[in-house]
Amino acid sequence: MKSFKLTLGQDKELHRGQLFWHTTTERAAFYPALIEDQACQIAIIGGGMSGAILAHQLSQASHDIIVVDKLQPGIGSSLGNTGIIQYHSDRALKDFIRIEGEQTAKDFYQLCHDAMKRLDRIIEDLGAEVGYQPLESVYITHEVKDASAFKQETKSLIEHGFPAEYLSREALARDCGLVGEHGLITRDDAMINPFKLIQALHEDSLRRGVKLFGNTIVKQVSRKRGQERITIETAEGHHIVAERVIFCTGYLEDFPALKNRDQLHSTYSVVTQPIKGPIWPKRRMVWDAADPYLYFRVTEDDRLIAGGLDETTDELSDMTTILQRAEQLLEQVRSYYPSLEAEPYVAWQSVFGVSRDELPFIGQDPKLDQVYYALGFGGNGTCYSVAAADILSCLIEGREHPYAYVVDPAR
């Protein structure tokens, strides 16, 4: 086996402001730090959404698994998640076809659509209350000139087997209660409480023997020449020896395999007090065609959660700016739903990652055997986490996955 040494432990601020999801439950477990050496088949570094779903799926196949998290599970990159889960990418299917070719584009969208179906089964098997609800999404614009783009995207989705429907201005008002020039409905999407889901997944995984350590900073991951097993060293000097390592570190770490292929940006989010007036029909999730785009939905307890105003920097703003952005987000929402009556409750800014080709990095390191990545760079993080669990399960167990090539870090 090839020797290697990866240094980790970046001290990166992922959020600033008042966050929301961790306040919605009192059932979050506390996971103590690693205090003695351990050994396992598979070590998962990062206990957020990707780490939680991977540990849950791999443990069902009786793999011996240890999960370590720098913080507590769900407090890192996942805490900025708005709980909007969609198969439709930030890059339209018609644009993927133009750039990547029809087969690759179709396979990527099929990967994401399959992940949504898989998530539905995961939630059903869990049997826990995690704020999950299958929903339709509305893609919307104020621009009259976007007519062709919306109609072409609807046509592309339908032709390739994905449920979609074009909406005129009149149909948007009549069927969705929204103000806009053009709309596109996609189905098989969902909303969720990401923090509750992460907690429920870990709780279930622990029953199958998974070990989870929080407040454990990984300093180095290495393998000496001629050795087959990988050594994980913590900042406190403890070690985990594993056959395989999966990095589910969100946006906390940089890796040589991804050098110059990813970039960190930031986004703003706001959660309101419960909405006072009526809520638009079917409580559909909404996102628009602007750049940067706006996205919003309603929570279980009738709060609005909205995000957007993305910036091409991971430098976080002061609280005054965050609150100003929260008001801007609400004004943007009112441009589509003028009757909104809701006051800000909490607001924050989060770091997120994008890749040059707008695809996540899921698969084995191009040069390092038994080292894997589940990094959901892009706007569909939870969907990518589910896809990563399926792809990496196949790779580890020696099975083929028909769509793994699309998101392979070696691409």
Architecture overview:
This protein has 411 residues and is of the alpha+beta class. It has helices spanning 49-60, 93-100, 102-126, 147-159, 169-176, 194-207, 319-336, 381-396, 404-407; strands at residues 4-7, 15-17, 38-45, 65-68, 84-85, 133-141, 164-168, 182-191, 211-213, 218-223, 230-234, 239-247, 262-274, 285-288, 295-298, 303-311, 344-355, 361-364, 371-375. The strands form two sheets. Strands 2, 5, 6, 7, 8, 13, 14, 15, 16 and 17 form a ten-stranded mixed β-sheet that branches. Strands 1, 3, 4, 9, 10, 11, 12, 18 and 19 form a nine-stranded mixed β-sheet that branches. Helix 1 packs parallel to helix 8 (381-396).
Features of this protein?
29% helix; 9-stranded mixed β-sheet; globular; 411 residues; FAD/NAD(P)-binding domain
